[in-house]
Amino acid sequence: MKKLLLPMFILLFCFNIQAQQEDEDGERDKETGFLIDENFGKNELSINALTLIAVGAFDLSYERNINEDSSWSTELWVQFNEEIADEFSRDLAVTGKYKHFFSSNYARGFYVHAFGMLSHGDYGEEFYYIGDELVEQNEMKYTDFALGFGIGGKLISSGGFKADFSGGFGRNLFNNDSPTFTGQIMVNLGYRF
């Protein structure tokens, strides 16, 4: 039951974000009905504050809005904290993501996303014995590619400040020495320009 609380919280939070943003006033495009957002550009830069604090990893994202209801992003994850790195398998990852928004606002509100992640790290250890004596201990390194999906919600302030909350789940595809599943929980803070 506890494992379901976080996804349920994220889902309810995202629906709340969408309901709040749909109440905003603004000029709408006559053809599409989407709110016109003339104050900002189509680029967004953000950092995942949650992973920086919780696991000591630098997770930087660049997002480009394609149109009013979709965007793509590229994310770079680098693990710096050595103590946590021993327990956390991913040391380096590059992720590409496509988001589709379900809001009448320009590229914000509730969304679903699909992602592809190329990751590298340590996953477990190999032990070599002669009789009862440990001869050698090696960390098992892996490099793998995962496909996955997730949900989220994005808020943009009138000044361009961005808060993006999302969670995703994927599966590594090619390496038997990698974790079977991978995931992302993101609290991205940044700026749209």
Explain what the structure shows.
Keywords: Signal. This is DUF3575 domain-containing protein. By secondary structure, the protein is α+β, with helices and mostly antiparallel strands. The chain has a single domain, classed as Porin (Beta Barrel). Helices cover 16% and strands 56% of the residues. It has an 8-stranded antiparallel beta barrel with strand order 1-2-3-4-5-6-7-8. Strand 7 and strand 8 form a beta hairpin. The longest helix has 21 residues. The chain is elongated, with a radius of gyration of 20 Å. The termini are far apart. About 5% of the residues have low confidence.
Low-confidence stretches: 17-25
Range of strand content: over 45%
Provide the CATH architecture.
Beta Barrel
CATH topology: Porin
Instruction: Encode the helix/strand succession as letters.
Output: HEHEEHEEEEE
Q: What structural category arises from helix and sheet content? A: alpha+beta
- State the share of residues found in helices, binned by percent: 10-25%
Largest sheet: spatial strand order: 1-2-3-4-5-6-7-8
- How many strands, what sense, and barrel or not for the largest sheet? 8 strands, antiparallel, barrel
CATH top level class name: Mainly Beta
Q: What characteristic shape results from the CA principal axes?
A: elongated
Mean pLDDT: 79
Multimeric status of the protein: single chain
